[in-house]
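Quarterly update from the structural biology core.
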Amino acid sequence: MREIDSENVARILAELGWISPEEPLQVRVLTGGVSNMVMHVDRESPGGGSISRKEFVLKQARHQLAVEEPWFCSVERLEREVLVLKTCQGLLQTEQAFPLAVGVPRLLAEDAGEHLYAMESAGVGHRTWKEDLLAGHLDSQVAVASGWLLGLLHGASWGDSHLARVIGDQQFFEDLRLDPYYRQVARGAPELASELDELIETARQPICLVHGDMSPKNLLVNDSQLMLIDFEVGHFGDPAFDLGFFQTHLLLKTLRAGQQAPDYWELVTCFQESYWQQLGITGQGMPVDDLKERSLRHLGGCLLARVDGKSPVDYLDERFKEVVRRIGRDLLCRQIVSWDTVCQQVLSGASAL
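Predicted structure, tokenized:
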């Protein structure tokens, strides 16, 4: 595997036949993640080669992740990412009724030897939903579309035995989520080890497609579309993890919003209503109550992981972190068992800080 950089990327792409030799490129490294090299490539014209797009995005896995704590994962996870991306494309071939077009990037080219793939770039003026949320720009349509998207991916893959065989291996989920999140918290708080061990076991249940990194930073939005990206943690597991993981990000931003916290909580409500509605449409007879209960405990584990795991959030000071730890512990240890109580704790915490 040759690691791409701004100096060698044109030559490597030409050797792969994706672009023409000596073709001038404008290359921009995209930041925000910790586990891959991601580049935006812009050409003077569509040009030759197998990629016909004028602009596209490249992604290549890195063995060591860019965080302070030692964190490693096999670069072969990129092949899993391509497989999950293709799976999501297939599941999303359904009628939509949103002002936003909801989907995933189109795969343009892939090379397993280089652990590299190319995908379409997002539309003009795109940004991450995380950027909007941190800036106080709240859009309930994005929350609704996000709930629909996750509910469809979960419901349409629920109990799919073929998919369970294809993406059933959970090693990348272990390396990128269970160990750096839950086990890392347990290493610092051994009194929570039994609860976290139980949570790890529930996360491994083979139920449906799990994205594993469903967060506002992986939702690209503009005035016309919402695009979900980053599928390297995708696997066949417990959808409660996705719910806990995603809503953790919304709750953290609600907590830091101060007096605007109720408006952020409304986004949580919009997401939940849309998710449960779509899950009920896609597949009936699912054990929803059990899923809700598990998602609350994953919410607790993920809250703790986002302050004491290997990749803590960078926008909370220590006062906020103590509130997050308290709510996370109470959820994990079943001292909080309802969303009404979560709401009260988060909004009271936001108003007090």
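The longest strand covers residues 36-43.
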